[in-house]
């Protein structure tokens, strides 16, 4: 298929997303985490009491802004079309798997790109795993994998998640005391609320217009040699890399990167899960937020699954631990607890079962044989 690197909307969306990560980091968001969907859903889950990890609790305005920005533009452009019914329970489960994999790596695909642009070479392992996962997902797509089609639903169904997020944001700015909010750690590091919200509104609208998706870029290149979505991925990386070099924030290396671990095996396996499950879902975590804003009830279920998954990951100590220094200033390698390792392995079995069960009967039988 002919290359579409000249598509202005995807280039603009990639540029805006990269600039948003740089700006929000400069204004207070954690280093190399200016715009991370999985991390911010984790913080949101903590803020509403779904987990008790005190260092990662904050109602991130970025998540709400992305959804409301995409909702507004899709409505204006008459692209807001409520639909649902495409294997919602399976999508909820896959949402949980995506977040368990992302938190094993300590970041979603978007943060993987942000970490690369900041010099965190552990993200190279994550990128390799991400590509492997997408390749596995594409293999099953080519065998006929499908979660079946969605059907039009009542308009009330399509505004559930945007309305819920809007109410949460209103409560957050009027009565913040009802939320759990970190006083230290990543959850305590954040840009001003209004700035985060406005920046995310813009990014959400542009991402909706361009259909920006980190998974879709690599998937479409593998399947069709179409580089349109891949160009957005590249622009995000280049924007962050150039910005960090200009700001003096590019710090290359493996150990002791911000909220990162250099246990390469679990970085690799975590992002294989994210890539594989995201292909099955039809989009990365960022894309799921945008689709939910367009009235897609199945993506809303996926987002809720990701929020619940983040709560489970921290309540049951499944998430990765960053590299650190002990009291004697000795390096301590981060990674996963034994519980986290078991969870990651279990998620591979879950994805395999879901992949095979949703193949046409003929192809499923061939694989089983």
Automatic annotation (TrEMBL):
Transmembrane regions listed in the UniProt entry: 92-114, 120-141, 153-179, 191-208, 229-248, 268-287, 299-319, 339-359
Stated name of the protein: Uncharacterized protein
Entry superkingdom: Bacteria
Keyword set, alphabetical order: Membrane, Transmembrane, Transmembrane helix
NCBIfam families assigned to the protein according to its UniProt record, in alphabetical order: seleno_YedE
Origin species: Oribacterium sinus F0268
A Pfam family this chain is assigned to: Sulf_transp
UniProt cross-references to InterPro entries, sorted A to Z: Seleno_YedE, Sulf_transp_TsuA/YedE
């Amino acid at each position: 298929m002919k290359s579409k690197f000249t598509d202005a909307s995807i280039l603009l969306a990639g540029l805006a997303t990269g600039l948003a990560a740089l700006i929000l980091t400069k204004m207070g968001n954690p280093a190399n985490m200016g715009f991370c969907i999985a991390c911010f859903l984790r913080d949101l889950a903590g803020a509403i009491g779904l987990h008790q990890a005190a260092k990662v609790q904050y109602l991130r305005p970025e998540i709400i802004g992305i959804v409301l920005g995409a909702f507004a533009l899709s409505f204006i452009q008459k692209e807001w079309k409520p639909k649902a019914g495409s294997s919602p329970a399976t999508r909820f489960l896959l949402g949980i798997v995506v977040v368990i994999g992302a938190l094993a790596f300590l970041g979603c695909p978007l943060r993987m790109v942000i970490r690369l642009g900041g010099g965190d070479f552990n993200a190279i392992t994550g990128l390799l795993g991400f590509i492997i996962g997408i390749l596995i997902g594409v293999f099953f797509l080519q065998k006929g994998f499908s979660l079946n089609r969605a059907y039009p639903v009542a308009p009330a169904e399509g505004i559930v998640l945007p309305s819920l997020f809007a109410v949460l944001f209103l409560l957050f700015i009027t009565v913040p005391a009802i939320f759990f909010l970190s006083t230290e750690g990543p959850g305590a590091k954040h840009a001003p609320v209004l700035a985060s919200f406005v920046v995310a509104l813009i990014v959400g609208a542009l991402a909706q217009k361009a259909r920006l998706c980190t998974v879709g870029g690599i998937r479409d290149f593998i399947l069709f040699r179409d580089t349109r979505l891949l160009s957005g991925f590249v622009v995000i990386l280049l924007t962050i890399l150039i910005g960090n070099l200009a700001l003096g924030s590019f710090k290359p290396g493996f150990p002791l990167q911000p909220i990162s671990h250099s246990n390469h095996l679990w970085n690799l396996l975590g992002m294989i899960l994210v890539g594989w499950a995201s292909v099955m879902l039809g989009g990365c975590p960022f894309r799921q937020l945008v689709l939910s804003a367009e009235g897609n009830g199945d993506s809303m279920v996926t987002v809720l699954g990701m929020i619940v998954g983040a709560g489970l990951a921290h309540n049951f100590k499944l998430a990765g631990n960053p590299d650190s220094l002990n009291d004697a200033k000795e390096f301590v390698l981060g990674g996963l607890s034994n519980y986290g390792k078991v969870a990651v392995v279990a998620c591979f079995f879950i994805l395999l079962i879901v992949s095979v069960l949703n193949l046409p009967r003929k192809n499923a039988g061939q694989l089983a044989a």
